[in-house]
């Protein structure tokens, strides 16, 4: 690519950022769409978030992604917040606006687009959601906004599960989210469920770990979606498949949250064909064969 006087800059702020796949997504899109744009990671030290956002504004940076640990904190630094991001309470994308940046959440619509692309239906489903951290909150909001029948939200710390459930139920005017202690999974009703794995258990390098081991649990799952993409075949996915369920990793969620951010920054619409080309490049880089 040619960097010249017209090149626009986008980037990622977080800590750490060294492991990120986002530059590959955005720089590939820029190349494919012949946009004069470069995307770089910015490691932001604790206590420097305000400086980083102000500096980015002063430097006329086109857009930023935000990752751990700043997705909630960054909201204090913004000129505007999109209503969906305000409701979820987390921002992962900043877009230039008058007087600063406007914050969006593209994780939730990214997961939805990823699920649609795998033909996973969420509407009307009974869902088991494992975890109550930042990612699980976005999943709980997605479920509530897509009229699921019920979400059994299981977490090791049950008080966190309760807090997420009551917040999402209240903000979405529903009672579909039911908090449960993780170890009480045997109390789940009979039936077959869509299970979304949103804990960090099984994440590289602890790839042999899984949040629930019991075969009886996996008998209940018709489709398992693990938000983890490294490794791309988690123990959770293996257990789902060994009980005849369909299993997916989270790389497409990562892809689509990036694509939606890119669309917001550049006012374009990325075709499915192009999305799949970027996906193939991501898979190649991560040595994923499926
Ligand atoms: P987080 O806020 O730190 O939450 C971690 C969750 O995992 C909590 O619910 C925690 O339970 C649970 N957990 C951790 N260790 C556990 C253990 N030993 N046993 C049982 N539960 C345990 O993390 P996050 O940001 O939500 O991320 C969760 C996962 O989603 C990560 O693996 C991340 O890589 C993945 N993710 C993927 C994408 C994507 O684009 N594909 C996007 C975001 C996140 P407690 O509350 O009891 O501690």
Question: What count of helical segments does DSSP give?
Answer: 10
Can you tell me the overall shape?
Answer: globular
Largest sheet: 6 strands, mixed
Structural class by secondary-structure content = alpha/beta
Strand arrangement, major sheet: 2-1-3-5-6-4
How do the helices and strands follow one another from N- to C-terminus? EHEHEEHEEHEHEHEEHEHEHH
Termini gap: 30 Å
Q: What's the gyration radius in Å?
A: 19 Å
Give the low-pLDDT segments: none
Percentage of helical residues?
25-40%
**Global mean pLDDT:** 96
Write a short abstract of this structure:
This protein is an alpha/beta fold and 290 residues long.
What does this 3D model show about the protein?
With 290 residues, the chain is an alpha/beta fold. Helix content is 37%, strand content 21%. The protein is built from ten helices and twelve strands. It has a six-stranded mixed β-sheet with strand order 2-1-3-5-6-4, sandwiched between helices. Helix 1 (22-32) crosses helix 9, helix 1 (22-32) crosses helix 10 (272-285) and helix 5 (134-145) runs parallel beside helix 6 (158-171). The longest helix has 16 residues, at 251-266. The radius of gyration is 19 Å and the shape is globular. The model has no long low-confidence stretch (mean pLDDT 96). It binds NADP nicotinamide-adenine-dinucleotide phosphate. NADP nicotinamide-adenine-dinucleotide phosphate is lined by residues 107, 131-136, 155-157, 160, 198-201, 203, 211, 227-229, 250, 253-254, 257.
